[in-house]
Amino acid sequence: MIESFDYSLIDWSRGQFALTAMYHWVFVPLTLGLGFMVAIMESIYVKSGNPEWKRITKFWMTIFGINFAIGIATGIILEFEFGTNWSNYSWFVGDIFGAPLAIEGIMAFFLESTFIAIMFFGWDKTSKRMHLFSTWLVAFGASLSALWILVANAWMQLPVGMKFNPETARNEMNNFWDVLFSPMAISKFTHTISSSYLLAALVVIGISAWFLIKKRHIVFAKRSMVVAAVFGLVTSIFTIATGDYSAKMIAMHQPMKFASFEGLYEGKNGAPLIAIGVISPKLSDPEKEYKKDFIFKIEFPKFLSFLAFDDFNAFVPGIKDLLEGNKEQNIPPYTEKIARGKLAIEALAQYKLAKEEGNMAVMAENKAILDQNFQYFGYGYFTGNTSHLIPNIPITFYSFHIMVALGFWFALFFCIILYLIYKNKITGLKFWLILAIVNIPLAYLASQAGWITAEMGRQPWVIQDLMPTMVAVSKLDANAVITTFILFALIFTSLLIAELSIMFKTIKSGPKQLTAESLNDAEVRLNGATHKDDLPNINGGPEHV
Amino acid sequence: MIYLTLMEDQSMFENLSLLDLQQYWWVIISILASALVFLMFVQGGQTLIYTLGKTNDERDLIVNTLGHQWETTFTTLVTFGGAFFASFPLFYSTSFGGAYWVWMAILIAFVIQAVSYEYRSKPSNVWGKRTFETMLFINGAFGTFLIGTAVATFFSGSMFSVDKSNLIHLYDAAISRWETPFHGLEAVLNWHNVALGLAVFFLARVLGILYICNSVKNTPIFKRAIKQMWFNAMPFLVFFLAFVTGLLFKDGFAYNPATGVVSMESCKYLHNLREMPVVAGIFLIGVLLVLTGIIKFIFMHNRKAFWFSGAGTFLTVLSLFLIAGLNNTAYYPSTFNIQHSLTIQNSSSSHYTLVAMSYVSLFIPVVIGYIYWAWHSLHKKQITLTDLENDTNHVY
To answer: Do A75 and A144 belong together in one domain?
Structure first.
């Protein structure tokens, strides 16, 4: 009889999933956003017939292609990892979770992969309009695939539209629309894609800024920047709005995650929101392991309550309330949840026994107990050790704050850039151009921090309250997972190195010359910052270096 | 909107029994698997870059023509996985979590493929053209062989156990367990599995040759291709015959649909063909078409031969999958305890989920439609070296 969980296996399995998911997420957000920006650029080209816009489109399309390939490479593994490393999970919720993955393949991946071939190879093989249509389909296909996987992810955070079936020992879907239109799914999808569009806009602005600093391809860079800054401003506002909505969803459905965002130990009415804070590494009170002291913090009074419940005086439960319970607020203590979880598991065991004996009465009795306590089913796998019931607070706290702070900064930045473009001052202001380049790594940091917040914050659950991570894992030898972890780390890192090198080289080379605009571009270089908006259609200009 | 209307109408799939839906989904899975094996001409072609292409230009030509299609194959694999998960989740949790090493090896072979086309000829790709070509070779060789070997375990069985009541064990709740420490690697010790693995490998090369000759116009490549066809079609036939003979005369895993009890039945798969004459017909037509393609190519130098062998491959694989799972056959047998074998009945999703997914499956013809359109647009004429040199758009 095994007496405890194999934590080495669990941690390495989590590590492997985190490694592969985070690598995947390095490449995906850029393609999500760039897909649309490329489509917008190509639309301008088709509408205006101006070859400069074709050149702009093609350059960003190349960047898109380099990222897309490695996004696919890192993505295939994730789908199969649910089976290879989270086998119990695959059965326990496969009846619900499998569907979005299959729909993603049938409805989105084929759309992307088919029309991407047209997008790259079909310039001269299909009509202009058909090519443009293909580019738009690739952009929509990419976001559509994001929709389905995020629906699946949201369902893990808020399991809806299903019922546990003791006969099959799994959850079974009973309402597809509840799964698809779950408020958690809506907040996940809208927040994730809008923040990805924002990231792509920052990348385009940053790369364009580099060209402006180098005084190369000025027309190209400024036009790219205009498209990206407008796109970025719109999507950053959307990101903030959906982020706010996400926070409300989490406060409502995952209060422990919400409390750990803020390191909130004791719940209170009118809880403050920490703008900036540093958690002390030392425990002030060894009895209270989860009470984090702040070396330093700046707070907005009552804002956390407002963020969570649209009410400055609402009660936000803290970690202590959620563990020890709070009668006033009607929050049960963890001991009660564990007891009810154990009741549910025991009822399942008795149900199975009674079924073997054919005792219908006992079956019905235990089914009732199971149904009554099922909402705490996952707690039944825990012992009294509270440290297993709480996410890592510092990691969740910092990643949440980094994400939020950068999100606001980016929105402000888009406003400034648009203003500078409008005033036609952008080319001369090196400070802002350098800042635009610095924003690229910051965008990736914010994006990764968002996923760390979402996924570390929901621990110890794979399915909120129903299945803890440690029960989901495949029964493997920890060494097997360590081996594949190392393999993936090596392969993905090697691919990333190649990817970055190719990206830098492609950017340095700049957009390929179309004979038509090369004259013009040379002219622009001579004239410094000035350029004409409507380029004449001149054929046969010299090659520009 | 059609979807919504159909859902409200409550008539199209809702009235089907659970068994009907399980069979419908087994057919869909079989179709996806057949499409995948057919599309692995990309993998087969990848193992022939240096065999068929003797100059850099020739190799570029081969890589570029394969490169127009690699994503379709890749996506089919991913969709096959997703559809299998959605319709038969117990297979997903048992096979993927159990035969860990085989699936990981297959996945890694595909991970390295996905970047190789795009990065191969890009300047500053760090690892060099040759490395990415080697990765394409590894994908082509191991991807096909291992998928073939893994599919053969549908007939030979694997050492695993499944017990759904394990969920009540606090510290040991794993439902599916692999009962050998080799986690899938043991599959290569069975000659019958290896025979299918090699047959798929050589078949992919046969199809690769046919595809390249169908889409490329280049005399030296074509001449080498004719010779290579002999070297690949012969071993394919030998391994395929060995596999099929073994299959038709081996004991199979039958189950009683009323009790769910699994028992060994001699010549089960032969019986399945006899009891499902349509499937037997599909099998025979499939094999004939594959052979027709090969013969047309070798003796008549017919470039359209690809479509014969391609269609034949699709039909043959389809028939093999159908006899693996239909007619009361356990499609993923356990040799550890045959009562733990997976059948379409004991491993499927619920009625509700299968109905919902069945509506989604109506998109498949649409997908096939636009894939056909895209293929047609990109393959209007055979590409030549000159085309590649003049291409200013996107070259791998």
So the answer is: yes
